[in-house]
Amino acid sequence: MKEGYRAVRFNPYLWPSGQQMTNEIGKAMFAKSGELGIPVGFMCFKGLLPHLADIEQLCTQFPTTTVIIDHFGFCKPPMNALESESWNRLLGLSKFPQHLPLEYQQLDDLIELLPVAMDEQEPQD
């Protein structure tokens, strides 16, 4: 905060090969961010599901660290089973005591896609 930083970003693809965000360094950074009142953003470029277990573990272990799920965890409007699972699991993060804001940068895109997605679904009889 002394240098003007306002948040920390965890990008799981920048961790050393074979290691997860829940390794010793990840836990220390996540815990310290909570102590300093700095939110941690998760940038899951290839989707939320492969990293959800790490995010849930960190949120469980360090409930005072505020979390931001960047770009809605790259979830798409639920048009199939996998997209529905991703979307529901993203919404399921609300069970954690810390506030889990979503980054609204792509909210306009999502709002534009939802009516199209809803129109393309098969009618339910």
Which key terms come to mind for this protein?
125 residues, mainly alpha, globular
Structural account:
This protein has 125 residues and is mostly helical. It has 4 helices and 3 strands; from the N terminus they run βαβαβαα. The chain has helices at residues 24-36, 52-61, 81-92, 107-120; strands at residues 8-10, 40-42, 67-69. The chain has a 3-stranded parallel β-sheet with strand order 1-2-3, covered by helices on one side. α1 (24-36) links the parallel β1 (8-10) and β2. The protein is globular. It starts with 7 loop residues before the first strand and ends in a 5-residue tail after the last helix. The relative contact order is 0.15. Residues 104-125 have low confidence and may be disordered.
Structural class: mainly alpha
Order of helices and strands: EHEHEHH
Major beta sheet, strand line-up: 1-2-3
Mean pLDDT across all residues, rounded? 80
**What's the gyration radius in Å?**
16 Å
Quaternary structure annotation: single chain
Number of E strands: 3
Largest beta-sheet details: 3 strands, parallel
Helicity range of the residues?
25-40%
The N- to C-terminal Cα distance equals 56 Å
Strand coverage percent? 5-15%
Overall 3D form: globular
Number of helices: 4
Task: Give the helices and strands, then pairings.
Blueprint: E1 8-10, H1 24-36, E2 40-42, H2 52-61, E3 67-69, H3 81-92, H4 107-120
Parallel strand pairs: 1-2, 2-3
Compact summary:
The protein is mostly helical and 125 residues long. The chain is built from 4 helices and 3 strands.
